[in-house]
Amino acid sequence: MAIARAEPIDRLRDDVRLLGELVGEVLREQGGHDLFTDVEYLRQAAIRLRSTDGSDEALLAWVAQQSTLRLLHLVRAFSAYFHLINLAEQHHRVRTLRERQRAQAAPLQESVAAACAELAAQGIHPDQIRDLVQRVEVLPVFTAHPSEARRRTLLHHLECVARLIDELDAERATPLDRSGVLDALRARITLIWQTAEARVERPSVLDEVQSVLYVLAGTVYDVLPRVQSAVATAAGANGARFRFGSWVGGDRDGNPAVTPEVTRAAARLARVAVLRRYRDEVQSLGRDLSISGRLVGCQPELSNSIETDRAELGMRAVPEWRDEPYRRKLGLIGERLRRTESGGAGAYTSAEQLLGDLQLIVDSLRAHGGSRIVSGGLLDLQHRVEAFGFSLAELEVRQHAGRHASAAAELLGLVGVPGYLGLGEAERMRVLEERLALDEPFGLPAEALSPETHEVLETFQAMRDVQGMNGPTGAQTCVVSMSHAPSDALAVLLLAREAGLVDRSTCRLDVVPLFETISELRACGQILSRMLASPPYRAAVRARGDRQQVMVGYSDSNKDGGYLAATWATYRAQQDLAQAALAAGVELVVFHGRGGAIGRGGGPMGRAIRARPVDAASPAFKITEQGEVIFARYGSLPIAQRHLEQVLHALLLSSAQVSRSSEPPGDWVAVMERLADASRLAYESLVKRHPDFMSFFHAATPFPELATLNLGSRPVSRVGRGELPGLEDLRAIPWVFSWTQARVNLPGWFGLGSALAGEISTWGLQRLQTMYTDWPLFASAIDNAQLSLGTADVPTARRYAALAGPELWPVFEAIMQEYDRSVAAVLQVTSQGELLERSPVLARSIKLRNPYVDALHVAQLALLRRFRALPADGPEEERHLLMDAIHHSINGIAAGLQTTG
User: Fold this and answer.
1) Does residue 145 have an active-site annotation?
2) Tens-place pLDDT, residues 335-348
């Protein structure tokens, strides 16, 4: 199954050919010669279809004649191939990065060193660079958003394959060594073949917790010192600030499986995971720090702490360590960590206590000729404890504003203030402010409350419990989704007070409104101003250090108003929020709710950072890391380091340029307003107002079948099982995922063509071309749309549209007309002859992959037709087999495209 290509990078071509041959060997061995023959026929037929531009009737007919079981095997064969080729490309990327680092004297592009060099070249003094580095704050938040189609088991096998591919490059490997690696690869490919890729059961929330902890306590934990070392080398600074968060086990918006007890359990699991990593490191340091006290000496403070610890812990001295104070201290630290994990006497009460003990060792070493020793594992451990604390990642809570409002209404009604939900906003604010001014909780017994209100209050108690276990930062963020008024924030304070998180002088949580729709994004600046003008809310923010987080949602805004309208709305929202915060004397941190696909705010991270408005370009950058993006960015140490350095690079340059930058000219802003409005109208005219659009979506994409794919614990829509959801009920991930599977990519571009064509017709092309050259926001919007258009595929989309039947064909024609307008306009604005002309490597990769993805598409289409034609009383065995094959085809196409939603 190797791809025949004239590739200048010989080693990647050789890796691809080798892995293809190994897959072929396993297929012949596991499925027989007939399976291998069918795979080869399908592969070659798909290549011929692309190369000759001929009819697809013969290929579709051949696929339609295959049994369901044979189609399942064909799908799995191409899926396995793509999984391995993706790893080969990742390996080659790492290999290329290493070679560039070895070959060039200048810093690697988009690295921390490159950012510092560029700042120095701009005349910024080294002290200013160090100050900027120490102000930078990177805040990735891992979510359980279900866009990772691969099971944890499969990811484990792929990680093993990645290590084996890396071993193939070992320069000193003997032929016997290489033979052993190849045998191990064959065994691992066989395991992949014999492992079901589609989940039999929907994962539980705690399954999702374990998956994200695997990454956080694995690659993320391991990579942090590497990044901090790069920062120290480039800037001479102690390091940038990193703090990680997680929604997994805390995000209850639309997920009834996330209960308060699940939240507590998620926090306990994270605590255990990080404490065990600390214990392992302390044990390793103990083996290394064999320094003799009588030969070198140590600080009296360290000696005194050893005796104090021994007495407190009731530990006897280890005779052979009598002359080795650092081993003695580390042994005692290890014992305290063990008791911290088990809850025994003598446990650390905070991560700061652990840092204090480590600092005693550092100070003593530095005072006695051990500075180089400090700069190794000991400094790494300090960096990790500073970043991860005892919680590994802050467990953030998200809940719908409507749930908070209903709970507040019930509590107020029970104390004689009825009708809260029927009040206008001004009256709601008055009621909440008066109640908060009383400075006393309701104190109602649980039996007096409805189960729904009790659950909301218990969630805040769970946050309090997690803080008690993992420290004040263990669970201090409450994200309020679908926020549309200041009262949504005050309601949180009212409810949190019941758990002791809020009183007149203190506030132990950050209230983070999440603005997601176009109308909310337009109004969010005014909403924040009114929030900060409310005395009880302003007091709460003051208690939090005058720092206000606000989350901007990219996915639902796109689904609501289309690609360009959402892009502009999120940009203007950041401006409005920054101005509101500045006027109130509050530091703003924008929390970017971005997904992996373009239609959900994805795209290159550095490009997104540089496209921020000047007013909102702060040194703090908080962003969600979702679904398949987590494995793509943190699946290997070199890739994870590269990703985090790229973020720091863009953040340093963006933050440093704020004082020298200006907002875009007024006429450019007016152009964007016109483009956003025109784009939104074009989008809404089809997506929201065409009577047949949702019927077409359900028929011409695999959404109905994707809805049964056990990707995550959260339902794919807000309606009950068996009902067809409308646009508003549909969650953004399956919306984007389904269009991606059908190769339409509609959320990533629709409406752009009408907007640009109208602007060019009325006002000309030159200004748009200048905006593309000189305005990062506009360039980012055009280039990201270009990526969506470039990875869309009209012949494939037409085959999926045929599923909908001739009565719905006008919807497809409208989509294709807008596609043609969008491609033509993007080429005019960017002065290109074809899409992705300036990204030849990406364009070539898409071209080479397309025939292989075609094989999966035609198989999926045959399976969808077969499944949808089954009679209601058809055999259950056939129904289950078809659905299993469809699920595997969805995973396979996601692997081939390297994206889901």
Assistant:
1) yes
2) 999 999 998 899 99
pLDDT digits (tens, 9 = 90+) for 454-489: 999 999 999 999 999 999 999 999 999 999 999 999
- Which residue range forms the structural domain that includes residue 521? 397-585
Return the residue matching tokens 């646009």: 727
| Mean pLDDT, residues 250-279 | 95
345: alpha, beta or left, given left = phi > 0 and alpha = psi -120 to 50?
beta
At 530, list the tokens.
């009114």
Say whether 880 is catalytic: no
CB 150 within 8 A of CB 629: no
Helix (H) or strand (E) holding 623: strand 620-625
- pLDDT band per the 50, 70, 90 thresholds, residue 2: very low
Residue 61 pLDDT: 95
Considering the candidates 92, 559, 698, 887, report the single residue annotated as catalytic: 559
Listing DSSP states for 627-684 in one string gives THHHHHHHSSHHHHHHHHHHHHHHHHHHHHTGGG--PPPHHHHHHHHHHHHHHHHHHH
- Residue 687 tokens read as 């997506």
pTM over 0.70: yes
Tokens of 846: 């898409």
pLDDT interval class at 632 (50, 70, 90) = confident
d(CA 568, CA 654): 19
Looking at the chain, the number of H-run helices and the number of E-run strands are 38, 10
Residues pairing with 398 in the sheet: 251, 479
Residue 372 sits in a domain whose CATH number is 1.20.1440.90
Q: Which of 73, 92, 145, 329 is catalytic?
A: 145
Q: Is there a domain that residue 616 lies in?
A: no
Same domain membership, residue 672 and residue 579: no
pLDDT in tens, 506-516: 999 999 999 99
> H helices of 314-378, where?
325-342, 351-367, 371-373
Whether residue 8 has pLDDT greater than 60? no
Q: How far, in Å, CA of 130 to CA of 115, rounded?
A: 12
Rama region for 759: left / alpha / beta (φ>0; ψ in -120 to 50; rest): alpha
